[in-house]
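Hey,

The postdoc asked me to send both predictions to you directly instead of through the lab channel. I've kept everything plain text so nothing gets mangled by the mail client. Protein one:
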Amino acid sequence: MSAAILYFTFFAVVFNVAFSFLYREEPETAWESLVFVLPNEHLARGGRCKTHSQFYCLDKYITENSYEMVELNEVIRDDRAAQFTELINHQWRRINMVDTMIDPSNCCYDQTTTYIVYGLQNKRMGPLQYMRKLTDYWNEDKPLNYIAAYYSPIHCSNIIFSLGFGPGDLKRDPHGDFLRGAAYSIPGLHADSKAGIPGIPSVAFNYHNPGAQLTFQWFKHHIMCQDHPWICGEEPPDRYSSDRSASDMIVHDNEQSPGSKRLRDQGDSSGTGSATKRRPR
């Protein structure tokens, strides 16, 4: 009897350790970021962005991996990929989510791969859930938590070419001749025809605390809404109302598209599925 109890206790401990390792709880302040790329002809990605917009491009919603030891079931992954492709195919131009790595005029391989990695693989998000993350523009309290820049001796500052907002500490991504201690800046078009943003003066941000001024609220109203007034609720009232979030608008528009009934009927859950061999991406 005592031997049976010992065996049971041993296997219970092993199971609990394995389960907690595979399905570890996420930290309370998990780092996530809604990342944008700024048009900049001095850089390859920024140059591709500028072919679509003079103001900004939506890059991705970055998450950290919470399921390092659990691989996706291929059937589930392919089904969710098809669903997200259907969603983003109707909206990528409208939300400036372009492929800044290869072809900004094409959809939807890069956009769907982004969802599979940062939405489905890392957080088990369904397609609609990830789309809501990409279009959550009404929450203006998101702090700056990612900034990428390079130093420009012409501007005497570190030029920002990518930035992100969300929970977690600020991550700095220095490139090229980045100068530690020099202010960050976003140049206006009058100051730099290749890297400047139209409609704004050149703006400098304190190196030690750029997020004090460079908030999502500032970025949204000074840059995003210049390109897309609907983000600030300036569309005709018969289509949008001021109390509707951007994600609600996106979901509403997609519900009018063919095939959306299947997506709604299946729901927005993304089960883990069984462990399978990872398919190269």
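Protein two:
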Amino acid sequence: MNICILAKICFVSKVCNGPCCCVELQAKIDRLEMKLKHIEDSIDNIVKKKLDEIQKTNIAMNAKVLAFMNQLSKNMADPEIMLPIKNEEEISSMDAAIKETPQKYNKLFQSTLQGGISSNMERVFSKDLIIRMNYNGEYGKISLRKYANICIIDLAGRTHV
């Protein structure tokens, strides 16, 4: 506000004690406006800091959630090895895969294997492979025991992981 307007206000209200009063009023108004501006700036700074903190927290939480979801999807993905296993190369592949992510294969075997061991042997291994192997690898046969990770899976559909 300028002094002329204040003088008119003082004159109309009949509280004016002369031009000095108007200058004092203007000085008070200026000080109040400065204080108000200072308060507004302080509030703006506080809000900006809080928003920055929230954004940083959000970014960190998003990264954690994405990492968790990525790991979860890896654990939930269906194994790519098809049953029954037909040869020693497929046994090696499955053994390595079970070692890497046993949780996936626990689910696969628990859902696939039901009943007794003899009925499950043909679900896991082809008949031809069953004939060419035994547990200890005796008599020139393929040793199932050398595939330690496959051996942790019970052919009755239970797992020992």
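Summary for protein two, as requested: Residues 11 and 18 are 9 Å apart (CA to CA).

Thanks,
C.
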